[in-house]
Structures are given as structure tokens and as C-alpha cells.
Amino acid sequence: MDIKQRITIRAVSDRAADLACAEQLADTLGLPLRVAEDDTSGLFLAYHNDRLQLHDNSLPAAAHPLSVDFLAGPSYYRFLSDRRISQPLAKAVGIKQGVRPEVCDVTAGFGEDGFVLACLGCRVVLVERSPIIWALLDNGLRRAAAHPLIGPLVAERISLHLAESTRFLDTAGRSFATIYLDPMYPATRKSALNKQKMRLLRAIVGDDSDSPALLAAAKKADPARIAVKRPLRAPPLSSAPASFSINGKSSRFDVYLPPYL
Q: Could you tell me the domains of the chain?
């Protein structure tokens, strides 16, 4: 995907720290850094008081820009109030009394599931292939790492990598107890596509058409288990049946155990 033709970075803040971050990010991603008056692009990244935000000029002016935030909203609530190991995600990755597997989330996205698993006590390796999503997630984790309550959890249990997941699994040189996949599911008229967050995510990364290949790469990496999150009524990623499935309210987790048959 050629992000250079679609997204720019804007220098919109008067804070020296924000400008320095914008310059560094532009250099890291190889994207143009522009001032607001010179930029007519639809999508752009900008720093505001250390927070990296993705803006969309095609949306109404009242629409909120997109950022990753573990210090407020559902993520922070789950950190404070929901540490149940009985929840479907926890069961799917193999959490149980006294067991906290290391999880490699090869479709990190905005990091919500990985953050939940870290809150439950797992060490989590996040892998994201979109440079834009990676930048937003990296910024969210960096801000969370500075928080007195959440900071130690993020620093000790979460690592983030910008990489193609199949290549990462091939070259990691190590095994993981659990590999977790939550690929983008093709949109339907009744899907979450109308929600701003999902709409922007799909605009950047599209559909994960290579999901079956990623599942095959996960099997080749030979973890103790693979957990795949799917919409509740979606077909499985593999023609081989899952070892078992765990249903939630709107999604399910297909769990594959060796020998993945």
C-alpha cells in the first residue's frame, strides 16, 4: 500500500515538542511534513499536546480525530474494573488460574485486545503492518507508559513491532505460547463500517484478504495454540475445523491446537 499518496503529516501545533515529534515521524514514515495552509489532503496526521491524531477532511468539522488512548474510555475502564479470566478473549488465548501465556497479536490494530491481555497478566507482542496504525498505536502506548498507574504494565508487558506479520513470524527466531489473529472482515451494509473509527481503519488498511495465509504462517510457527477472532456468523479462515470455538455476544474465537486438525 502506498501511503505516501494518501496521507501527510501536518505541523499545526505551536508547541516545540509537537513540532519535533512531527518532524521525526515524517522522517520515520517517509511522509511529507506540511503546514496546514499548504495541505489539501483528505487524511493527515498531526500532534496536539503530545497526542498523535488522524484527521479526515472529508468528515464534518464536528467529527473527532482518531487517536489511540488507553487512559480513558473503554480501555481504561477495563483496566480498572474488568480483570475476569472467564471472559471469552481470556479463555481463547489460554488464560486460566495460574497460567498467563505470552501472546503474539499479529493483527494489532489499535491494540485494544492486546491491552486487555496485558491487563490480565500476559506478556503481549503486538505486530502491526500499517505504518499509520503503528504510529497511532505507538503514540498511545508511549503516553500510557508515562501514566503512574498504567505505565509499569505497559513497559513490562507490551512490545510493539512494525512489520509484515508473516515475515515477523518467519524471522522471530522464537516461539510463542499463543498467536492471536483478529483480521479485518469484509464490510457489509450492516457492519461497523459506518462507525468513524472502523471507517478510517478500513480506509487505511482495507480488508485483510491475506488472512488465510497469515493463519497458515501462524500454524507454521508452531505455537501451543492459535486463537482467531471472527464475527459470530462469519465462516472460518481455514478449511480445517477449529479444535473448538468460544462464542461472545457479536464475535467468536476459533481456537486451533496442535496438530491443527
A: 3-56 (3.40.120), 73-256 (3.40.50.150)
